[in-house]
Design goal:
Layout lengths: L1 H7 L5 E2 L3 E2 L2 H10 L4 H11 L10 H14 L5 H8 L12 H15 L6 H17 L13 H10 L12 H8 L3 H6 L7 H18 L2 H16 L5 H22 L16 H8 L4 H17 L3 H10 L3
Antiparallel strand pairs: 1-2
Helix pairs in contact: 2-3, 2-6, 2-15, 4-7, 6-7, 6-12, 9-13, 11-12, 11-13, 11-16, 12-13, 12-15, 15-16
Length: 317
């Protein structure tokens, strides 16, 4: 697997005027769910054809190399936390792919079970952080304090009309939505509690199950990335992270409401094994990543909604 991560470092972390390069994230997810080398190779060869060379972006390459030099001899949790300190507020970056790309490779570093060399892990980490820094975007929130459980209940109870969006990148739409009166009605700041993490996970899942929207995929994978990156969040950002997550999830949920999905036929008794082969042979990076996220979070919480969300995902495959 290392050669694929290394080869992806030859490509820019974005392409085609702002789309995120998902290749390393999808490769890592495929490996975690049991893909063999033939399946990984097939996906790599299919996906990489649309990417752009990093050589075309000398500033990005220079930033990545300098960050690598800074980290290669000291990649302790404290050091990485310091590097990430100023990036946490910018969750919106790349439609959440700044934090997601960094989180996926941090998992390799954290658990020390990777077949990827530490040198390549640090280079990939440096590229992810470089992308997060270079493309950083932040949405505003309302200054008022809100109760998360109550505001989620209010959101679900509101008759939010399906909104039509012209083709646009997710993060551009999130910026536009964050200026709307609808967003401001539910936006706000929340006090950190452990219970709020559960509420945020549930909210992301509920919106995905309800809409099966492309945007909602990113809501669920954002929450997975948050779980991975939590140990690297300092005290100040820890106090603010749930507010940041809520307001980003809120904007994404409003975007996702452009879609609806009848999921009444679904059963929570289906298991991940049924769909594994189909995912392992998929060319869709979002399907691969969401399957990986759902399997990891289901094993952690045993929440049957993750199985329901899996079936929503696979119902269109």
């Amino acid at each position: 697997m290392e050669k694929y991560i290394q080869q992806n470092l030859q490509y820019s972390p974005s392409y085609n005027n702002g789309l995120s390069n998902h290749l390393s994230m999808a490769i890592l997810a495929l490996d975690k769910i049991g893909a063999n080398e033939q399946q990984i190779d097939k996906f790599f060869n299919s996906y990489s054809t649309k990417l752009e060379s990093i050589i075309n972006y000398p500033q990005l390459l220079d930033m990545q190399r300098k960050l690598y030099e800074n980290l290669k001899n000291n990649y302790s949790k404290i050091k990485i936390s310091e590097v990430l300190d100023n990036l946490i507020p910018y969750l919106t970056t790349g439609g959440f792919h700044g934090i997601i790309r960094v989180a996926y490779i941090l998992e390799e570093l954290e658990h020390n079970i990777s077949i990827i060399s530490q040198n390549i892990i640090i280079k990939e980490l440096a590229m992810g952080i470089t992308y997060w820094e270079k493309a950083k975007i932040q949405i505003d929130d309302e200054l008022r304090h809100i109760n998360l459980q109550e505001i989620i209940k209010k959101f679900h109870g509101s008759n939010i009309q399906q909104t039509k969006f012209s083709p646009n990148l997710i993060y551009n739409d999130l910026l536009l939505i964050s200026k709307s009166e609808l967003y401001k009605e539910f936006s706000g700041q929340i006090q950190y509690t452990a219970k709020n993490d559960e509420l945020l996970h549930e909210f992301a899942l509920d919106i995905y199950i309800e809409t099966r929207d492309f945007t909602a995929i990113h809501m669920v994978t954002l929450m997975h990335a948050y779980e991975i990156i939590k140990p690297y969040i300092n005290r100040q950002n820890e106090e603010n992270i749930q507010t940041l997550l809520w307001n980003n999830l809120l904007a994404a949920a409003i975007r996702a409401k452009r879609s609806s999905f009848d999921n009444k036929f679904l059963s929570a008794e289906q298991c991940f094994i049924k769909y594994k082969d189909k995912v392992l042979n998929s060319n869709d990076d979002h399907v691969i990543k969401l399957y990986y996220t759902l399997s990891k979070l289901y094993r952690k919480s045993a929440n049957p909604k993750y199985i329901t969300a899996l079936q929503v995902l696979m119902s269109k495959q």
